[in-house]
Amino acid sequence: GPDDIKGTHVSRAPRPINLAVTDHAQVGALRWVLDEVRWEDKGALEKCFAPVTVPIQLVMTLTMPVIREGNLSKGYTSALAFFAPLFFLSTPGTAPLLATLLPGSPWMYIAACALLVCAMTGAVLSMETRGPAAACEGAALLTFVQSVVWMHLAADELVLCIDALGKVAGISEEFLGATVLAWGNCVGDLMSNLAVARAGQAPMAIAACFAGPLFNLLVGLSASLVYVNFVIGDVRVQPSNSMLLLLAGSVASLAACVVGMRASGSSELPKPMGWALIGFYAAFTAVYVLTEMGAVFGEPWVGSTEGGALGV
Fold it and tell me: In terms of Cα–Cα distance, which of 248, 269, 156 is closest to 206?
């Protein structure tokens, strides 16, 4: 009876679990999700925000590949071939443009293009033994293009949020652009330049500090003006004291960098120069805030023309 085998070790084989095809797909998808979001490497605080951050990470992963070692799986490559063109063509402004050029609904053409690219990619992968390399030229180019689209979308939403905040709080757009928007725009550059400098590439980091604002002024601003002039017409702007103060501060900071580098007499930048530039920015920000509030420089520096507007 049962009492006769008490205390004896009975070896039982583990009960096999029969997984259907859908179960295998679900387990594989769950394992892929955990690997892509690096769930095991996340801390307690990161896991608390996972319901918000994980969906964004997954959407970004499905629209652009992560450059790393190894090969992409065939399933992921096929999914990427569908979602990448779908995301690229669904960005704001593309659908109205297609509606003006082609008859019918633009979403029909967008979906057809995504399905065509996915089918062609699947046909090519069926003849291969494994997926493409994750660090190939095509993956790098796709990641670069899609990252620009993501930054474009994020910038649009950020501008809309700042505009709404300014209207609710009664803060001018110039003040928000010179403070909140400028800080948010430069955080990515700050982190990347610090990483490059700590990796031993200080000249590259310094060059990027000057090349980034130069690109924004010569390419970003000029391209925006050309587009607006082409679509709307002449842009009329009245330069305020705060805008002229920004121009003067930019020129003064560049002159201080040149003078400091010449005064050092060597290729090394001393630490006091860095602290001096930080102090200069703090003092400039304080003067800018006082100017925007009207506490200083209350009288306009530049008189208005044609009813208070300058043609640009």
Answer: 269
Residue 25 has pLDDT above 60, yes or no: no
Q: pLDDT, tens digit, for every residue of 189-248?
A: 787 788 888 888 888 888 888 888 888 888 888 888 888 888 777 877 777 788 888 888
Picking from 196, 216, 213, the residue whose alpha carbon sits closest to that of residue 253 is 213
Q: DSSP label at 90?
A: T
Q: Tokens 């403070």: give the residue.
A: 179
CA–CA dist 113, 84 (Å, integer): 11
> For residues 71 and 210, what is the distance between their CA atoms, to the nearest angstrom?
37
Q: Are 150 and 60 in contact (CB under 8 A)?
A: yes
Burial (Cβ within 10 Å: 0-12, 13-18, ≥19) of residue 149: middle
- Cα dihedral 210, 211, 217, 218, rounded to 10, equals 140
Residue 237 has what DSSP assignment?
Answer: E
**What values do phi and psi take at 237, rounded to 5?**
-130, 135
Count CA atoms closer than 13 A to 50's CA, side-chain side.
15
Q: What is the CA radius of gyration of the chain?
A: 28
- Single pTM value for the model: 0.59
CA torsion 186→190→192→197, rounded to 10°? Answer: 150
